[in-house]
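Translate sequence into structure tokens.
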Amino acid sequence: MRKKYLDNVRWITVVLVVIYHVIYMYNGVTSFGVVGPFHENQIQDVYEYIVYPWFMLLLFVVSGMSARFDLDQCDSKTFLKKRTRKLLVPSTIGLFVGGWILGYYNMLIGGAFEAFANVPKPFTFLIMCISGCGPLWYIQMLWVFCLLLLFIRKIEKDRFYHKCENVNIVILLLLTIFIYGSAQILNTPIIVVYRFGIYGTGRKDWSFSPDFIKI
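Result follows.
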């Protein structure tokens, strides 16, 4: 059964993401790869600081809950097949259809074409496509996390899920420490943009126990 509240959380968060990126293009903090600020001091930049720490994490939490509900309805093989069709295939096609355009501008801004002057054109095109993954990184990470989820579930066998049935608000609040700690793992500059630590933790926690909160 479709969870309408998850759909609402998802689309609202996507709107927040779109607004974030529009404001980011004219932010007054960093100038790399953006148009630049309108004024020296911009009140709209406050929005960036308010939503950035949590809005993408929320999307991964919602994805984790959706994965759990889906796995309750089908086996692991069917789940992986569906996620590959919905995530990996379109994101890969997107890299070659439109990703090269963003990759071209990224490489142009970074002066990469001079560095790859002697690289054969087909390889340069592949590098250009990968450099232009843009928003597709989210879909790609979801697919990677699906693989990790199936591997962990095979070992864990829902033991953690059943232990979470009696979790109370105190333990839930203590999880903020765990989330904060995960945000310090595999973050920039170790992995630029891909915040595997906090996003993976958010998705895996809720993949195992989406409805465990009992206040």
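Note: The mean pLDDT is 83.
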